[in-house]
Input
Amino acid sequence: MPTDPYEDDLDDLPPAQPVHYAEQSLLGALLLEPQRLADIGDLDASQFGNHAHGALFQAMRTVPPPDPEIHHSDPTRLNTVLDAARPHAPGLTASYLHTLIQVCPWPRHAPTYARMIRADHARRTLLMHAERLAQTATDTTLPNPAASTLAQAETLGQFLDTLAGQFAPHPGSLPRTLVPDNSAGHSSEEALDEERLLLATATAHPAELKNMRWLQPSDFTLPLHATVWQCLTALVHNGEPVDPVTVLWEAQHRGLLTDGLDPGDLIALVSAPVGSPEYWGERVLQRALLACAFGVGTRIAAYAHDPANTPHQLITGSRRALADLTALRTRWQHSTALTPPAPRAPHSPAGSRAGPPPRVTPARARALR
Output
């Protein structure tokens, strides 16, 4: 982590990361041989992890370079650089500048030190973008969470494109970081209710499933619901009649009526429609999109937290993670591009119902949560 820029004894602070040594070595090289500023490429003061180091580097860029022959015998430039940096980092001292000069192994390695600083800055910036993506995906106060999350994912993708042009590829480009498993625990009772409503409404209006190929079984939070959705789409695809009994029969062939799931519970699950399948399908897909975005954000953040990963490993691993979200984004855009259907009156053999269907929690359903 960056150290406090207002510490009085910067040279006594223990380096938090190896990049601290790289920053010290680069600054020492530039204090010894200011002409090497022209050799380090596109490096900005904001890329330093230590604020005081960044202020000192900016001062070096501001102060005109001295004559190389005079500089070796005249310490005036050191004082000029220090005076220019102190308004932004009051803790800097003349003794610390001499420490920087002493710890620099070889001034001619300045371009390599600068490359190390850029690489660590890229890692920290990627971590920031990944954490923003995960936070946006779980922000319940947003008026349009899907659009905001996809916009943040687009920003992250653009940053990766920029990085790809700055760092050369190399073999062994996949990160080896252990990624936390976020697949479990993202379902809620509200999500399960919406899935139940979708299944019941799709059973009542099966013709509309032909226009809902953008919804996949993997979008459901409960495996039981995903399998019932497969039953419905299979019946529609084969041109078979669709009603609670035919869905039950198809579910039996798929092994759903084992492990304690009662046939009556399954019929109840698909017998209380409300609204339209497209509406509930979009709700299910949006939840899947946000859950995927959160998983992608935490996965990339785990990569960026690991300093063992090189910039190219971060780029490759992050792009692979984003590919999962890209596929969902395509389906989401296809679903929202369709013309929304007119509101439907509830359809049920027993009459209209205003509320959600009964919550079915048989033994198998509870076991699959």
Residues 121-369 form a domain with the DNAb Helicase; Chain A fold (CATH 1.10.860.10). The mean pLDDT is 84. The chain has two domains: 10-105, 121-369. The two ends are 40 Å apart (CA to CA).
